Amino acid sequence: MASQNYWLMKTEPGVFSFENLIDLPSKTTSWEGVRNYQARNFMRDLFKLGDHVFIYHSNTDEPAIIGIAKVVKEAYPDGHALDENSKYFDEKAKTKNGWVMVDVEAIYKFEKPITRERIGKEKKLASMWLLRQGSRLSIQPVTEVEYKTICKLEKLLKL
DNA sequence: GCCAACGTTGGC
DNA sequence: GCCAACGTTGGC
Is strand B in 7 Å reach of the CB of A136? Predict the structure, then answer.
């Protein structure tokens, strides 16, 4: 059995928030629109069924981790890349860029969001990818220590 | 809204 | 293959 991996995925709440996700009947969504090679490679090569993923709100008044989702479908082609009407359309997708997406299902919500400010104050979290200067990567690996540390900061509500 | 950091593009 | 120009991200 493969060991469990942990991740963090960013989303802009103005575009698609964690609340939008848990409002869906299935609490499940495909994570389309990732257009960065490094992020794609994480999804394509390393995302495994059952991996846990922090959902992080970026580009908002209070950047924070809101909840946790789990991978319910491993990487498969992102059809939006081939759809001219989609905002995620990519001219080169057909020939060159193999964009993929995964499906995730929301499983926990933090009673209170774990703000970026708070993450910055925790010694054990000091080396998180999220805090690195200029880190724009939308999908980031999280270590087991970081995962457990964050889970202990606030009560987790099962969804 | 500003702007620094970063990834990508394209001329050479 | 270099690197300047450009577009985007995202904290503040």
Answer: yes
Length in residues, chain A: 159
Q: Which amino acid is at A70?
A: K
> Residues A18-72: pLDDT tens digits?
999 999 999 999 999 999 999 999 999 999 999 999 999 999 999 999 999 999 9
Q: A78 CA to B8 C1', in Å?
A: 20
Evaluate whether A111 touches A159 at the Cβ level (below 8 Å): no
Rounded to an integer, what distance in angstroms lies between the CA atom of residue A95 and that of residue A75?
19
Query: pTM of the predicted model, to two decimals?
Result: 0.92
**Beta-carbon contacts of residue A78 (< 8 Å; ≥ 6 apart):** A30, A32, A33, A34, A88, A99, A100, A101
Residue A112's contacts (CB-CB under 8 Å, 6 or more residues apart) are A154
